[in-house]
Q: What sequence folds into this?
């Protein structure tokens, strides 16, 4: 059991971990995949670095600082987050399950929209990005999950006992390691339908009739977890109060997933607010 679990190891998540750990709380940071910060060739507008610093160096130094303070940092893909009966948060990764009294989301916004004709036209009309949210509407129907990683398999697991037929479409990428589901690796040309999703057409001219498509490419982002937890969103950004709390007790959000100015300085500030607010929440919960 951890006091605080933080999903994301960029400036926001690491800043939150530092403040929570310095308040003598047990803190776990989970992250996976490349951060947007790592892609920055040079950052020359952040306080304290007269000659600039590469995004990769700043990112890695942040993780090192947290670890030296005693924060537990694990590179592990988060697949699922849920609240349990004790009002704690159960976080499932590809390797293990963890439980925390408070949760901080700082993943950035990683939702990947496939470059497929029809993906925008049928958004909300048979195309969904959340199996737990919308799976119920496809009872005993034929659906597909677009993706080829652990996140896609996790979404398929949430659908398998609801739908009549489930297919994983990798859109030209290698097949995931599974023998539970039918997998089609052909490149998708177009999503078709009359007002709603009716089929996908592959580049070889063949078609697969479908009632719905769930998109789960890459890894889950903050908006994906927010939808599953019932957190209020503004588009793909999480709605937060000034203290970075969400509408769900014990869940806080910081960094790019909150929208607004997408800068390191803002992420660090919001991370500090989220970390301190999580500590305050834990004190009040313990009363």
A:
């Amino acid at each position: 059991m951890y006091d605080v679990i933080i999903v994301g190891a960029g400036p926001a998540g690491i800043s939150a971990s530092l403040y929570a750990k310095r308040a003598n709380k047990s803190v776990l940071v989970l992250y996976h995949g490349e951060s947007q910060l790592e892609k920055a060739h040079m950052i020359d507008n952040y306080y304290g670095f007269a000659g600039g610093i590469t995004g990769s160096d700043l990112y890695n130094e942040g993780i090192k600082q947290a670890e030296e303070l005693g924060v537990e940092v694990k590179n592990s893909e988060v697949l699922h987050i849920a609240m349990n009966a004790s009002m704690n948060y159960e976080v499932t990764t590809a390797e293990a399950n963890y439980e925390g009294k408070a949760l901080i989301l700082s993943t950035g916004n990683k939702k990947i929209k496939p470059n497929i004709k029809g993906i925008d036209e049928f958004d909300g009309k048979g195309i969904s990005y959340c199996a737990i949210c919308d799976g119920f509407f496809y009872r005993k129907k034929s659906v597909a999950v677009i993706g080829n990683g652990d996140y896609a398999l996790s979404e398929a697991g949430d659908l398998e006992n609801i739908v009549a037929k489930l297919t994983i479409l990798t859109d030209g990428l290698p097949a995931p390691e599974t023998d539970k589901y039918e997998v089609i690796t052909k490149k998708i040309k177009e999503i078709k339908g009359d007002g709603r999703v009716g089929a996908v057409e592959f580049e070889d001219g063949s078609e697969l009739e479908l009632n719905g498509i769930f998109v789960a490419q890459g890894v889950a982002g903050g908006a994906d977890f927010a939808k599953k937890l019932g957190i209020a969103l503004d588009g793909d950004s999480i709605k937060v109060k000034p203290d970075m709390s969400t509408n769900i007790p014990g869940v806080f959000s910081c960094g790019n997933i909150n929208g607004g100015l997408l800068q390191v300085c803002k992420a660090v500030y919001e991370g500090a607010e989220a970390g301190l607010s999580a500590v305050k929440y834990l004190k009040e919960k313990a009363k």
